[in-house]
Design a protein that fits this description.
Two copies of one chain form a homodimer. The first copy, chain A, is α/β, with parallel strands linked by helices and about 325 residues long. Chain A has 13 helices and 14 strands. In chain A, the strands form four sheets. Chain A has a seven-stranded parallel sheet with strand order 5-2-1-9-10-13-14, sandwiched between helices. In chain A, strands 7-6-8 form a three-stranded antiparallel sheet. Chains A and B meet through α3, α4 and α5 of A and α3, α4 and α5 of B.
Chain lengths: ~325, ~325
């Protein structure tokens, strides 16, 4: 079974890692949000891509979920000493990634090729792809501060301003990265990882051609990033609320309406199973919180079995 | 007594540090070679400036003379892991300097202003100035590999190719950095630190206006970087040889002919004292090797006393 997963940062990376631990390497492609990429100190920084890569390579910091394990902070401390901007956490090991990526981008290499080579260097067997080789920027309109580029909202302002809407600037002029449409075309199932629907998954779907190609994948399921009305990490629940939507698995289903035919929800949201099914969705209720490698693998395994069932069901109907 | 010192890398930095430990802060300006500055990974790197600043700030690595003490190498190891170019030693703390400098240069700030602010942050009291706020590039013509940019010759090729000549590209279109000519105009003496005459001092003198202004300083002395026919560090002696010149204090005197009226040479070169004096130079024979802080201060003290004597002598004559 060929699988394409869509992923943003920490939660998506954990699920992608679970899938990578179970599926044969050739059967998994992870398409990663690059809408939160930005330039800082002249370096091109791709937070979600790095989180996914570090996680699948076993290099991620287990306590934060982002950044690298056994990291040092000497460069950032030097910058702080000089009165420079130290709001973005630039670890020393992590800096090496940004430096080498920036060097290669400046030589004209597409991001997807760089990610492929980095993956190989880090011993990642699955195929990891940026959503696009073109720069697409997520901007957040806030009540208090107007339009903010994503990292300014997310890191510098720590998601405090109330959101009004999002824009993925450059998306209309962009193309899917080399390999994205190919992977979707041969996929048996699409798994939307438990990432933020507004700022992790929506940017991926904003790239011309990706959503259309996703819709051709026989089975499409999402894993809810909302558990018991809250997000494990990040501002997803807060965003739903600020946009006037009650943050629940129903809201997640609504976000992906027309795109998915199955939703994976946590046991604490079991009561939503029936209304979701009445709304036409297949539902898998299981433990979706991933606190360790076993949890990641279990969630991946159950989600894959769920997909398999839907695939058989679908084939039975056609 | 107002002093201007011209300095390149490690040897010049040590002497400048000796001067800074003795002179009142307001009386010392160090003009530093920036001809070996280069861009690497998109970062602007100024090896001599950083060596001088780190040394005067007490942050320098005591065993290498360049780079920072208690340095870590995690970023460079990451780059190496990814197959990137690791020929230039980029320490993590050092990287912070390059990142913040690059960020501020990109905002249009002149290098001299950045150096002033960095000096203040690092607690350096003396005035440190780059020779120019404009990019000037030292290129080395070699027998084996043709023209090489300085760092390619110096670090990547480790000074192995035989030199034929040097060019300071961009010098004719450049101006002295803000403050350079002002400092020279009020200086009582000019001290050329024991730096490489070909690639550390010559680039400084190539900036239009600097040499002319140096010649107006009442007393001008150089400390020979050649001791017993050899350089303590770096390719100065090798360069003299490859250019068909016997590397000795006589060769150093010849390099600075017309510019200096005094030369400080090491005790091992005492025999050259008489021929140098016959050639019209005042000579100070002393210990010029600086193995510790005491040596730096002693050399600085003796050189300053030598300058003082020449100043009185000169005043007596006029």
């Amino acid at each position: 079974m060929k699988v394409v997963a869509l992923a943003g940062g920490v939660g998506g990376a954990k699920m992608a890692d679970g899938l990578a631990r179970i599926l044969p390497a050739d059967d998994l492609t992870v398409i990663v949000n690059t809408g939160d990429d930005f330039s800082h100190f002249g370096l091109r920084i791709c937070p979600d891509l790095d989180t996914v890569c570090y996680t699948l390579a076993g290099l991620a910091n287990p306590s934060t979920g982002w950044g690298r394990a056994d990291e040092t902070w000497n460069a950032l401390n030097s910058i702080r000493e000089l009165g420079g901007p130290a709001w973005f956490q630039l670890g020393d090991k992590d800096l090496g990634t940004h430096l080498e990526r920036t060097r290669r981008l400046a030589q004209g290499e597409p991001l997807s090729k760089i990610v492929r080579d980095f993956s190989r260097s880090w011993g990642i067997a699955a195929q990891i792809l940026p959503m696009s080789d073109h720069p697409v920027e997520t901007w957040v309109e806030t009540e208090e501060m107007g339009w903010l580029p994503f990292q300014e909202y997310f890191v510098a302002q720590q998601c405090v301003p109330r959101v009004k809407q999002f824009e993925f600037r450059g998306a209309q002029q962009s193309l899917p990265a080399v390999g994205v449409l190919d992977a979707l075309e041969v996929a048996d199932c699409l798994i939307i990882c438990p990432s933020n629907p507004w700022v992790s998954i929506a940017p991926i779907l904003s790239i011309p051609g990706i959503k259309e190609c996703c819709l051709k994948v026989p089975v499409r399921v999402a894993v809810s990033p909302i558990i018991g009305g809250k997000a494990i990490k990040g501002p997803a629940a807060k965003m739903y609320e600020e946009l006037g939507i009650n943050p629940s698995v129903l809201a997640v289903a609504e976000s992906y309406r027309g795109l998915i035919d199955g939703l994976v929800i946590d046991r604490v949201d079991q009561a939503y199973g029936e209304p979701l099914e009445k709304g036409g969705l297949h539902v898998l209720v299981t433990q979706t919180i991933m606190q360790n490698y076993i949890d990641r693998m279990n969630l991946a395994k159950e989600t894959l079995e769920f997909c398999q069932k839907l695939l058989i069901f679908r084939k039975g109907r056609t």
